[in-house]
Amino acid sequence: MDEYSPKRHDIAQLKFLCETLYHDCLANLEESNHGWVNDPTSAVNLQLNELIEHIATFALNYKIKYNEDNKLVAQIDEYLDDTFMLFSSYGINTQDLQKWRKSGNRLFR
C-alpha cells in the first residue's frame, strides 16, 4: 500500500491477507495430530505470528490513510487479537475457537 493506491485495492489486499491467515490457521488446526494441544514455538505458529504482525502493520497504515474507516480496522484488530490468543497458548479450548471463528466470520461478511 502506498499513498496513491486506490481504497478498493487496499481493502482487497487486507481481505486477501486476512483470508490467508484464516486458511493457514484452519490448516494448522487440521494438521494437529495431538488434538487440542498447541505448540506456540513451532515453526508453523511462528509463521502465523509473522503474518499477524504483517497484517497489523498493513492495517495500521490503512488506518492512517483512511482514518474515517475505523470500523474495519477495529474488526481486523479484534480478529488478529483472537487469532494470536488462540495460537499462542499451549491448549486450545472450544470457547476460544468459537470466539476466533465468530470474529473471522464478522470480518469476512
UniProtKB/TrEMBL annotation:
Domain of life: Bacteria
Database matches in InterPro entries: Biofilm_formation_reg_YbaJ (IPR019693)
Pfam families given in the database record: YbaJ (PF10757)
Protein's UniProt name: Hha toxicity modulator TomB
